[in-house]
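Query structure, 137 tokens:
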């Protein structure tokens, strides 16, 4: 988290989808591949600036699934240039409040991030699949 700019920085070491990239995608050779044995090439990019939706599929304590969703803005600014997909997200509730509310729901380690605000569509999908949907605002 960047408390000065009130943003959450999220990223992933792995492939990216070029159609959601902001600007050019960089391929970087790494001597150490993010703590794994060996070396190789990694992809570095940021998600296009503008509205985004985060989605986490969460296993509950009852053994069922729920969908955890939040909407944010992907914003410009410095990222960690370490060969990852890495972006800065601004939430209407603020970085600190978002992280606390998101983590209280027990999110999976990974989440999906897509362009646009589509929480209402995810809610409809949850209704069709008979899954609880928690929308962090």
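Result returned for the query:
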């Amino acid at each position: 988290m960047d408390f000065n700019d009130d943003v959450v920085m999220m990223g992933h070491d792995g492939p990216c989808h070029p159609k959601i990239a902001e600007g050019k995608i960089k391929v970087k050779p790494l001597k150490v591949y993010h703590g794994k044995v060996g070396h190789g090439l990694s992809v570095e990019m940021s998600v296009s600036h503008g509205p985004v939706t985060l989605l986490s599929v969460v296993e509950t304590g009852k053994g069922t699934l729920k969908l955890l969703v939040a909407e944010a803005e992907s914003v410009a600014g410095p990222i960690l240039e370490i060969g990852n997909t890495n972006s800065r997200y601004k939430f209407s509730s603020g970085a600190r409040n978002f992280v606390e509310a998101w983590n209280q729901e027990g999110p999976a380690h990974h989440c999906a991030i897509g362009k646009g605000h589509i929480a209402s569509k995810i809610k409809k999908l949850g209704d069709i699949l008979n899954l609880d949907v928690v929308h962090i605002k």
